Amino acid sequence: MEITVVIDYDGFCELRERWDGLLSEASYDSVFLTHEWFSAFIQGFDLMRKLNIVLIHEGTELIGILPLYRMDEKRGWVRVCILKSITNVHTPKYSFIMKKGVEKRLPEALILLRQVVPWDVIQADYVSHSSATHRCLGHVNSVTGWTVKVLPLMQSPFITLSDDWETYYANRFSRSLRKNIEYSIRKAQKNHEVVYEVIVGDRLDDKDLKDAFVIEDSGWKGDNRSSILKHESFRKFYSLLAREANNRGWFSLRFLAFNGKRVAVDYCLTYRGTDNLLKTGYDESCKEYAPGHILRKYAIHDAFSQGCDVYDLLGAADDYKMKMTNEVDTMYRMYFFNHRIKSRFMKFILFGAKETAEKMGVKSILKHIFGTPNVSMRN
């Protein structure tokens, strides 16, 4: 086994063909692991000069990719090297990319990586329960003897489209939600011409993206400054992602319009049988018609019609989502600590100090100093 590390954006771009080839043979595949996703992410969030993308080779064959970037931080008087997953709160799911059948070799790769990059902590966020990374944890512990800490970040709901639409809608949507949606549709159709519009391929232009971002900004996300338009990095990322994914036939915008005015939007990525709801929003001025709920019915029906296997709601398990499904995927934050002194120091800061504080009854003080590791994502 051989480890190499790509530290520049040009080197990352040169990986596209091999990246796609490995992902097609990986034990866990997702649109959020594609070269296109990371390309938009790295550019949008300005990580081009921080990359530490780890390539794992067996002879001439690429068998693994660890999409990481490097953070050199000073904790107290100690400078530590943290290799972090290329993620943030805009990432629904993450995993190391490992060829099917070689996941058990991850510990060997991490040991060799320590010789190439003297890392003290590896932190991976939004790791799916079903991912290769999560399945490898036991092997890392048993082979290396290192400490791996796993923290649940959130549960993310999805819908398995195993029934036909009529059966699903009648049996898996809650009765109250169905009643509210049908009432909202009748009310909207009484006062407006209601149109469901899907923008894909050559139909996509800058105006469509602008309309989508304006709608998303009009609600609570705009009020609390978490919307796409409130941050240049967010706008850049979602614009680049739309172009990259649209070139591959994965992207769509779904609009709900009243009398020709777009009042709700879904920003979606459809990849290998999974329809992913990445961002959604509606015009607050039309909230009496519950346009978001109307759009959700049309969009899920559309996923059935397109022959998708899964409709992934993504984000946190908000109450309204759980009225459509009882299926969830758990997302984790994982820390890998080796036996070096700095790594043990970081483990104490992140976990040992808090555990000691709990026993001593001063947990709130240390929480203020060190913060909390729990984060969430809403779409």
Report on this model:
This protein is α+β, with helices and mostly antiparallel strands and 379 residues long. It has 2 domains: 2-155 and 331-370, Gcn5-related N-acetyltransferase (GNAT) (Aminopeptidase, 3-Layer(aba) Sandwich); 162-308, Aminopeptidase (3-Layer(aba) Sandwich). Helix content is 40%, strand content 28%. It is built from 15 helices and 14 strands. It has helices spanning 9-13, 16-24, 35-44, 106-116, 132-135, 137-144, 165-171, 175-191, 206-217, 220-223, 232-247, 291-305, 319-322, 341-360, 363-370, and strands at 2-6, 53-58, 61-66, 68-75, 78-85, 97-98, 121-128, 147-160, 194-199, 251-258, 261-271, 274-282, 310-312, 327-337. It has a 10-stranded mixed beta sheet with strand order 4-5-7-14-8-13-12-11-10-9, with helices on both faces. Strand 12 (274-282), helix 12 (291-305) and strand 13 (310-312) form a beta-alpha-beta unit. Helix 3 (35-44) runs antiparallel to helix 11 (232-247), helix 8 (175-191) packs across helix 12 (291-305) and helix 14 (341-360) packs antiparallel against helix 15. The longest helix has 20 residues, at 341-360. The chain is elongated and about 70 Å long. The model has no long low-confidence stretch (mean pLDDT 91).
The 3D shape can be described as elongated
Give me the CATH superfamily of the largest domain. Gcn5-related N-acetyltransferase (GNAT)
Please tally the β strands and state the result. 14
Mean pLDDT: 91
Topology:
Blueprint: E1 2-6, H1 9-13, H2 16-24, H3 35-44, E2 53-58, E3 61-66, E4 68-75, E5 78-85, E6 97-98, H4 106-116, E7 121-128, H5 132-135, H6 137-144, E8 147-160, H7 165-171, H8 175-191, E9 194-199, H9 206-217, H10 220-223, H11 232-247, E10 251-258, E11 261-271, E12 274-282, H12 291-305, E13 310-312, H13 319-322, E14 327-337, H14 341-360, H15 363-370
Parallel strand pairs: 5-7, 12-13
Antiparallel strand pairs: 1-2, 2-3, 3-6, 4-5, 7-14, 8-13, 8-14, 9-10, 10-11, 11-12
Helix pairs in contact: 3-11, 4-6, 8-12, 14-15
